[in-house]
Amino acid sequence: MQSAKDAAASAKAGMEKTKATVQEKAERMTTRDPLKKEMATDKKEDKKAAAELEKREAKEHNVAAGHGVQHPHVGGGTGTGYGTGSTF
């Protein structure tokens, strides 16, 4: 289950990074001002860093949530197949 959540976090981050790149290209194509082009690139880098940070936080949260899960003890025996109330 953890790997599915991690994969989802990675996919979301990848989509956000791609979206930031496409937005940067669109902004750079619509202006001739070098300062605005540089600002578009800076904004893209900030969005990509934020997406990566969010992905890492999601993975850390998934790991922490996994450690907090209490699994009930199933069985109650020693694993040898012999119960404690045998009548041999």
UniProtKB/TrEMBL annotation:
Renumbered to this chain, region (Disordered) spans 1-88
What is the name listed in the Swiss-Prot or TrEMBL entry for this protein? Protein LE25-like
User: Which intervals carry biased composition (Basic and acidic residues)?
Assistant: 14-62
For bias kind Low complexity, which ranges apply? 1-13, 63-73
Q: Where is the composition biased (Gly residues)?
A: 74-88
Q: Which organism is it from?
A: Nicotiana tabacum (Common tobacco)
Q: Which Pfam families match?
A: LEA_1
Name a single GO biological process. embryo development ending in seed dormancy
The gene for this chain is LOC107810283
InterPro entries of this UniProt entry?
LEA_1
Q: Which family does it belong to?
A: Belongs to the LEA type 1 family.
